[in-house]
Amino acid sequence: MLKTWRRFISAGTSGLLLFAVLINVHAGPAGAAAAADTQGSEQDVFRIVALGDSITAGYEPGMTDPSVKPYGYAERLLEQGWYHGRSTLSNYGILGLKTSGLLQYTAAIKDGAAATPEGIQPGLPDPRIAQFAAMTPQIRTELAAADLITITIGGNDVSSLFLNVKTLTEADFTAQLAERLAAYSSNVKSALDNIRAVNPMATILLADQYQPAPRIALGASYDKLMSAAAQFTVAAENIAATLNQAGAPVKVAHVAAKFAGVEGSLTHIIGAGAADFHPTQLGYERIAMVFAELQWGEYLTPAAAVMTSATAPMSIVVKGTTLNTPNKPILKNGQNFLALKDILNAVGATGKWDNKTSSATIIYGGRTVVITIGSKTIKVNGADVAIDTPAFLQKVGKEDKTYLPLAALATGLGFDVNYSSKLRTAFINP
């Protein structure tokens, strides 16, 4: 079994080298600044910065298709942020990063000077590492503005201990565990000190270390490794306790407890040909739940996300409340449309319909938007703005309902509109 695990890990490491598909991850280095610009500086935006290893990056084995974007805990956490208002994510998870690398990376971020890959950690397999190293001045700016900073780190520090658990003597295992715990505590504490130097007020959530293999695979070694994971949890709690203060919380996200006893379904450690320590999609959701419940006290799942029918309507969440209406949202030409009356009621806008011109006039927050049926332009405070897909009339029972494109509403009224294809949900925040 141990040889099998080694083969799994080797396969996973080779897979990391093919992870170039993540260079342009959603809301990553280039996306975060752009998202903030489009939302407008006058709006309150909840900013999330995710630091750490490949779990932060959202890696899963087999990610070699450039069209497949990661959907890890950080991306789910961004979706949870949309329930509570305008939110952005900057994800700087680095494949293969150890706590020593996190320490060096946060030191470079604190200094605001471009780093080198070797200066962060020699031999990192992440193809984006040169980009991340060069971007430390920008990352410092993003970190300084963050409201929430999340961290997963430490798995790469202890992976060899896990792999060799069956061949190590009790004394050697105990000694190596103590060595890794000491290094973890020192490196992570210093890394958090660097982060606090840049942002003294943001909430910091540090995940503990889950044990990835089920009892059936580990046999007698299972309890030993679970005990080791518990010691890392205590170490994380001790670190958090030294930095936690009123108005600037540092909390431990107790991920390990959520994986205990159900490791086989939450990780890829047992699988056909490509298994490794990384979470499955269910595992990433479980991690996101822990982070979200720490931050907001809940983890929300829209109704559309659990529907299996491809023709089932998507969910619309407006200012954190799911829009319930008989006028179902419509997906047309890749664009999402809502009934005029529903969106007016949901956001508290005023509007009127002109039969002569087949146009709707919407007034909200000092903006006046005129949307005409069939037109590929809308008027925003009198100026023409091009849109991709025009509004249309939809027969609902005996009535013709005016359906407006969400993209046009976002452009015209200054709303923040985000669509999650995974959740099949549009989030609208005025």
TrEMBL record:
Residues 317-428 form the Copper amine oxidase-like N-terminal domain. Residues 1-32 form the signal peptide. GO terms for molecular function: phosphatidylcholine lysophospholipase activity. Gene3D superfamilies: Copper amine oxidase-like, N-terminal domain, SGNH hydrolase. Transmembrane segments: none annotated. It holds the Pfam family Cu_amine_oxidN1. Keywords: Signal. It comes from the Bacteria. This is Copper amine oxidase. It comes from Paenibacillus borealis. The lineage of its organism: Bacteria, Bacillati, Bacillota, Bacilli, Bacillales.
